[in-house]
Description:
By secondary structure, this protein is an alpha/beta fold.
Amino acid sequence: MKNWFILALLFIYPLIGFSQSKIKVACVGNSITAGAGVEAGKNYPDQLQVLLGDTYDVENYGISGRTLLKKGDFPYWKEAKYQEVLQWQPDIVVIKLGTNDSKPQNWQHKAEFKKDYIAFVKSFKKLPSHPKVYICKPMPAYYENFKINPGVIKNEILPLIETIAKKTKVKVIDLYTPMLGKDALAPDGIHPNAEGDAVLANEVYKEIK
């Protein structure tokens, strides 16, 4: 009888551990992801966590001012958080980069944007966890601020995102179109407030679910 009890426990414990494991979602990005200017708990990854619920673990890997371009002024590639997110072995990766790449000092290297982005996506896809990767179209820049160029985002970066998604076979989350005309949700023209972050979180949520 005692042996049967031990065998039952050996069978049940792995199932308990499996049922309690959460789906790991890594939000990779710049200051918009990090939540610049937004009160605690209201950035888009935090709001995404609420929408997805307790079966998901959403982690914010946003860093202000970072670029996708390796030759940008502050490349995400060189950050410790980049190594941290790779080591975390996420199940889902949401990449929202490109806004800071539109700055003149960065966009002078635009010929390398596609190549660098493809390499960035591949660095996640080859992880042992084989995450599902999404790349986001940046939200609009409503006017030029912090040297961020609205025209470059709209006319050059958005089409490149589509091309990169096809090349890497990943899905695009459009955060540009849902934010058109919502200037009031980004007081400085670039960074969304809590209500704007709710729009971003909802768009990401819809794609993940």
